[in-house]
Automatic annotation (TrEMBL):
InterPro entries to which the protein is assigned, alphabetical: ADC_dom_sf (IPR023375), DUF2071 (IPR018644)
Protein name: DUF2071 domain-containing protein
Record field: transmembrane: none
Amino acid sequence: METVPAEPITPSTPRPVRWPTMVQGWHELTFLHWPVEPERVAGLLPAGTRPDTLDGVTYVGLVPFLMRGTGFGPGPGLPYLGTFCETNVRLYSVDGRGRRGVVFKSLDATRLLPVLAGRLGFRLPYIWSAMRLRREGDVITYTCRRRRPAAASRAVVRIGPPIAEPSPLEHFLTARWGLHVTWHGRTAHLPNEHPTWPLHRAELLDLDDGLVEAAGLPAPSGPPVSVLWSPGVKVRFGTMELLRHAR
C-alpha cells in the first residue's frame, strides 16, 4: 500500500461535506486522553490504517457526552430518539491517503435504536448501556454501566476557562474530520465536518473507569495528560468511501 504523510492538523475540515448523509449534535463533552506507544495499538486498527502520532506518541481517548438531534440526511434530526448519552473509547488513525481519523473501539449509548442502527448500518461497536450525565454548576458527572459484557465508568470534571488558542496536542486530539471503520471486510473512511471546537480547560476530580481496558486497550496508568471540555458542536457526515488498498 502506497502511503503519503498525514495531512496537516486544521481547526476546520479540509474536505467540506457537500451532501450530508447524517447529522448529529455533540454536547457537554469531556475529552480524557492518555499516551500510548503506537506499536501497542497498531494491531487494533482497521486494515490500511496506522496509528496517528504526534512527536512519536499516539493516544487513547475516553469521551463521554450528550448526543442530540441524530438523524439521517441533511437534518434537522430526531428530538427524542436522536438524543441520548454516549461514551466512546477511541484511537487515532491515518490512512494511505494521509487522512487523519478516529477509530472507535467501543461506543456505549442509552438508546437501543441508535445502537442497532450504528451496529448494523455502520459496523460500529455500539453497546446498549445505562448512562447518566448530571451537571451542578461547573461540575459534571458522567456515569456508565454496561449491561453485557459488564463494565462501568464514572468521571467527574470541573469546567475551567475557555482556551483562546489550543496547543498542538489539543488540536491533534480534537480536530478529527472522519472515522475509519471495518466495513464488510474492507476499511472505510466516513468524513465529517463541524465548526471549530469551543474548548475549555477542565479538571478531573474523580475517575473510576473500566471501559478502556474492556475495549482491549492498555489500562490507563496515572492521570490523563489532557483533560478538555466543550459545550459542543453540530456535526454533518458525508458519504462513506472504501479504501482502495488493504494492509
